[in-house]
From TrEMBL:
Keywords: Repeat, TPR repeat. Pfam families: TPR_12 (PF13424). It comes from the Eukaryota. SUPFAM superfamilies: TPR-like. This is Kinesin light chain. TPR repeats lie at residues 113-146. InterPro entries: TPR-like_helical_dom_sf (IPR011990), TPR_rpt (IPR019734). Gene3D superfamilies: Tetratricopeptide repeat domain (1.25.40.10). The keyword Hydrolase does not apply.
Length: 176
């Protein structure tokens, strides 16, 4: 049976209430499931961004700036800002997320590599193609080293590089 966003929202609310009752309002589990709850509701993107900002502050206060749930919230905020066309702010959020993930998880952790790829995407949208390529190449090198050339994240980054090369007419690089 296929379920929809209404079902997702209902189940996220149920999980959130259960975690809050058992573990506390600001427990890691309750805060993590709140990300899913925010993303599964039918609210406007602007409203979702504002709720993510509030959640990020709660995560920072309750869990610390380096906690994985805090960083997941930060990354999700960056993605929403990016999708909303707020590229400069998304870039700042992604850069902060990259710095924290590098410090806490290391340069070749998938989350860190995802942050590099996100920066490649946002720099492309900002038309800073040189920086976009720099971040894409760093992400690709890490994905291939740790996850392999056929991992979906590596393939997605290769596609991003191909699109960038086409845009900048660097067809030799695109064929690689």
């Amino acid at each position: 049976m296929v379920r929809d966003f209404d079902d997702a929202e209902r189940y996220y609310k149920r999980a959130k209430e259960g975690y809050e009752e058992q573990l506390g309002r600001d427990s890691e589990k309750a805060l993590k499931v709140t990300i899913g709850l925010i993303m599964s509701t039918g609210m406007s993107r602007d409203e979702g961004i504002e709720k993510l900002r509030v959640l990020l502050k709660r995560c920072e206060r309750a869990l610390g700036e380096e906690n994985v749930v805090t960083l997941e919230t930060l990354n999700t905020l960056g993605c929403e800002l990016d999708d909303n066309g707020e590229y400069e702010e998304a870039k700042e959020v992604y850069e902060r997320c990259l710095a924290e993930r590098t410090k806490t998880s290391g340069e070749n952790h998938k989350d860190t590599l995802d942050s590099l790829n996100n920066l490649g995407i946002v720099y492309y949208k900002l038309k800073n193609y040189e920086k976009a390529m720099e971040y894409y190449e760093r992400a690709l090198e890490g994905y291939e080293k740790t996850l392999g050339k056929t991992h979906p994240s590596a393939i997605m980054t290769v596609e991003g590089i191909a699109i960038l090369c086409k845009k900048t007419k660097d067809f030799g690089k695109a064929e690689e």
